[in-house]
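Observation: inputs received (chain + NAP).
Thought: call the complex predictor directly.
Action: predict_structure
Action Input:
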Amino acid sequence: MVSTRILGKTGFQVSEIGLGCWQLGGDFGPIDDARCQLILSEADTQGINFWDTADVYGAGKSEERIAQFTTSHSSKPIVATKVGRAAELYPSGYTKTSVRTNLENSLTRLQGEVLDLVQLHCIPSEVLKAGDILNWMDDFEQQGLIRYTGVSVETLDEALFAVEHPKIATIQTIFNLFRQDHIEQLFPKALGNNVGIIVRLPLASGVLAGTMRPDKVFDPSDHRNYNQNGAAFSVGETFSGLPFSKALEFVDTLKSHKPANMSMAQMAMRWILDQKAVSTVITGVSRPEQVRENASTSSLSSLPPSLHQTFKDFYFSSVKPHVRGVM
Ligand SMILES: NC(=O)c1ccc[n+]([C@@H]2O[C@H](COP(=O)([O-])OP(=O)(O)OC[C@H]3O[C@@H](n4cnc5c(N)ncnc54)[C@H](OP(=O)(O)O)[C@@H]3O)[C@@H](O)[C@H]2O)c1
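Observation:
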């Protein structure tokens, strides 16, 4: 079973390996109901009790597929959804009524009584910092529509704003072997202010698992096809902002440091779990076997300090200059 950690101000005991459910909406290529249910069932079996989704993943399909599982099983995972990227809201349609309507629609799709954790979904920095939307979320908490408010951010600047805000319980951010700045800039503050860190893109969209070849063809419906250069949304969300060919080159270097007792995917996730400030790593999956492999990372030993130093040096000297998108 996967070990648990406390998720910041929510106090939730969450599995340190969580489940990213963007894939259940079809943005990593087509996926049918049956495979989604197998993935959710495997996550449940492995003790993965923290599932991340959003209203816009598959236009609500990801949330519906989660409800299909939770309404037919006794175990109740903590489901974190998001609001803020639906066409009627993003980038300038935020009103208290429109946000509330979107939250109510998520609750209907998830078939729950309350939303456990709602993350503002990469909303424009100026909207986040203006503060009105956070006051509305506070009201929604008081009214019993949601339990806690978090943010999912694109930039470290937004994370540094959020970590000081008393109402924000969690921060979801891109953090992986190709994005390491958080260690010094964000994590000490998150620990000090009891803000839960939810890590997305732990495998940089899968490339850090070390099994992709340069001639890999991604389905046209897969963002790793259509968003390689940021045509649809922030380039940082696809391969962590690295050009695919560059990411493969860096993965080859990392492979030479892989401990014998773990896979590349496990090494990448273990490196993240070695950070005390991290509450959960929401790795996305397209197959149940990946759930099993990812869950087993929780019982592996920490990487040695010397390897952490090697990866830090490699990031700052070689990788960071090639990362696109605002950090
Ligand atoms: N703005 C936001 O708030 C935002 C943005 C992005 C993601 N997210 C959330 O974060 C979650 C994680 O991010 P992500 O899915 O984009 O990136 P990720 O977790 O780094 O990569 C996911 C991909 O890695 C591959 N993979 C997973 N486990 C593997 C294993 N054991 N061996 C080999 N390959 C493996 C799969 O690729 P294949 O599909 O090729 O099998 C999977 O689709 C998402 O599901 C979503 O919930 C949030």
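Thought: report the result.
Final Answer: The mean pLDDT is 98. The chain has one domain: 4-322.
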